[in-house]
Design goal:
Layout (H helix, E strand, L loop, with lengths): L4 E8 L11 E7 L14 H12 L7 E4 L3 H14 L5 E4 L13 H14 L5 E6 L1 H12 L11 E6 L5 E7 L1
Parallel strand pairs: 1-7, 2-5, 3-4, 3-5
Antiparallel strand pairs: 2-6, 6-7
Helix pairs in contact: 1-2, 3-4
Length: 174
């Protein structure tokens, strides 16, 4: 079944992103590349502070959290939840969020991965997916049929699926 997709550009992270007309929402966000050093797998103090700040701007509680296998992805989710004052909801490590899957991480397969995650967020709920920039960019391209300009740290997309199956994608930019 083919669902319609609407693409909105350049939504600021500080804006209220959720309203009563939306149903199931997933927020795939590139985790922070701000690290202690190039080879580090942990976030730097600045990276933790930035993730916590994202959580402070959250306008809805997260019903599900999905992270890539990278340790810093889980750390980013923890700091976002801390900033939101929220406990860890249902959560899972999702290998495909690393930007690769059995098909090599094509735009089509990454979009299929986002749709599968949407299916796992409770109806009317909000999910948070901490991923890598290539996943977010390819998923956006696969969903909307056009390539977005490159995303930076803690930028991503807001993907909302309505009851009729239509999908809206909003860019989350700093």
């Amino acid at each position: 079944m083919s669902a319609s997709v609407r693409w909105s550009r350049s939504t600021s992270r500080g804006q209220s992103l959720f309203d009563q007309q939306r149903t199931t929402t997933l927020v795939p966000v590139s985790f922070l590349a701000t690290r202690v050093n190039v080879g580090s797998i942990r976030l730097s103090p600045l990276g933790r502070a930035e993730a916590e700040d994202v959580g402070r701007h959250a306008t809805a509680a997260y019903d599900a959290v999905f992270v890539s296998p990278a340790e810093r992805a889980a750390e980013t989710a923890a700091w976002i939840l801390r900033g939101a004052g929220a406990q860890l909801p249902d959560h899972e490590v999702v290998p495909g969020l690393a930007g690769r899957d059995a098909e090599g991480g094509t735009a089509t397969s990454m979009a299929r991965g986002v749709r599968a995650l949407l299916d796992r967020v409770p109806d009317g709920g909000t999910g948070l997916a901490i991923s890598h920039t290539p996943f977010v960019e390819r998923a956006a391209e696969g969903l909307a049929g056009e390539e977005p300009r490159p995303f930076g740290e803690l930028e991503g997309i807001l993907v909302t699926r309505a009851d009729d199956g239509s999908i809206e994608i909003e860019e989350l930019r700093s």
